[in-house]
Design a protein that fits this description.
about 375 residues, TIM Barrel
């Protein structure tokens, strides 16, 4: 079975934040762009995606589609190897890895559809479901919206919730107090600085977060590039507070550097950035060697299948922005039950179908063909 066609699309969806804007510790954004890939063989279509700039779509059409066409539709890993080899001079980390990720996910989805199986059953699955944590709590939310969002996840049975911090650190005590009061003492409370703090600031806030509000997870207290700083907070921070990073890992070396020491208590990986499912399986092998858990960063519609194949699975980030985009663009998205996402066992592949009529108003690249 040969891959006959590769089609690339991009859709830009505005945020629903205050005044059309959302922000975290280091970034503001007005929209989220999904780059969507279709691959076709034997009358079946697989889909994959990543979140990034629209230029990633052009990269796929220019560099990857010619490499994938004509290849074995049942051998995604072989295509992955050819794709990464083919972009050596164009750039593998960053946009290159994101482009490969979208195509790789589409190829795995196609393989599962050709076999008539849900994707997680085609993978070497250790699990049939993935624990989730609710993620949002952007730094420009009002206290009312912040507490309503996080408490809403707890009411749905999700026992872990995360808010963004550290853009205006002086406001964080008031925000954390309001959230802890709203969710109660039982649920786990997570924070994410998105690399906004210096090393000593991060160590200071790590201690306060844990002691005053019972925070259990401190994501990117300093930049992911600062492995020395991450290691400092991990080694000298309070017990019971896990330091996490890895969402900006693109190639295997990025994850190996975070595991050296190690610099984190729990590693993160984004299946739409780290080389897709083929890349993720390699990262999962590293975490098994280092005896460190792996957490899924965002993209729940794809991550729920992919991370069933991660032996040292911690959980999956049920991220507000991506949940909105995936529910808008796809039929077949999943909702958590009892704090878990479980892939559908009765639908082939990812179990998703594109809602083309709903997606079309958001299109910024490509064209619909029937």
């Amino acid at each position: 079975m040969r891959v006959e066609e590769v089609r690339t699309h991009a859709f830009e969806v505005p945020t629903d934040g205050p005044e059309g804007m959302e922000e975290d510790g280091t970034l503001r954004w007005e929209s989220t762009t999904m780059i969507l890939v279709e691959v076709r063989a034997e009358g079946r279509t697989g889909i994959g995606y990543t979140y990034g700039d629209v230029s990633v779509a052009a990269f796929i059409d220019s560099k990857l589609a010619p490499v994938v066409r004509g290849g074995d539709a049942l051998a995604p890993a072989a295509a992955w190897h050819r794709m990464f080899a083919g972009i050596r001079n164009a750039g593998r980390p960053g946009a290159g890895a994101m482009a490969v990720s979208a195509v790789d996910i589409a190829l795995w989805d196609l393989k599962a559809r050709l076999l008539g199986l849900p994707l997680f059953q085609v993978l070497p699955a250790f699990h049939d479901g993935v624990p989730v944590y609710g993620s949002g709590g952007f730094t420009n939310y009002s206290l009312e919206r912040l507490t309503s969002q996080l408490a809403g996840w707890v009411e749905q049975g999700i026992g872990r919730v995360k808010l963004k911090t550290s853009r205006r650190p002086g406001e964080d005590p008031r925000r954390l107090t309001a959230v802890r009061e709203a969710i109660g003492s039982g649920p786990e409370l997570y924070t994410d600085a998105n690399g906004a703090l210096t090393r000593k600031e991060a160590l200071y806030w790590a201690r306060r977060f844990a002691e005053e509000w019972g925070v259990r997870w401190f994501e990117e207290p300093v930049s992911s590039d600062d492995t020395t700083g991450l290691r400092l907070v991990r080694d000298q921070g309070p017990g019971g507070l896990d330091v996490a990073a890895g969402e900006y890992g693109f190639i295997l070396k990025d994850f190996a550097e975070l595991l050296d020491g190690p610099a984190v208590d729990c590693l993160q990986a984004d299946v739409t950035r780290c080389g897709g499912i083929t890349g993720l399986l390699q990262v999962a092998g590293l975490t098994s060697v280092h005896q460190i858990d792996l957490s899924a960063h965002c993209a729940p519609a794809a991550s729920v299948h992919a991370f069933c194949a991660v032996k040292r699975l911690r959980h999956l980030e049920y991220f507000h922005d991506h949940v909105r985009v995936e529910q808008l663009l796809f039929d077949g998205t999943l909702s958590p039950a009892d704090g878990m996402l479980a892939p559908a066992a009765d639908r082939p592949g990812l179990g998703l179908q594109v809602k083309w009529d709903d997606a079309e108003p958001c299109r910024v690249y490509g064209s619909r063909q029937t």
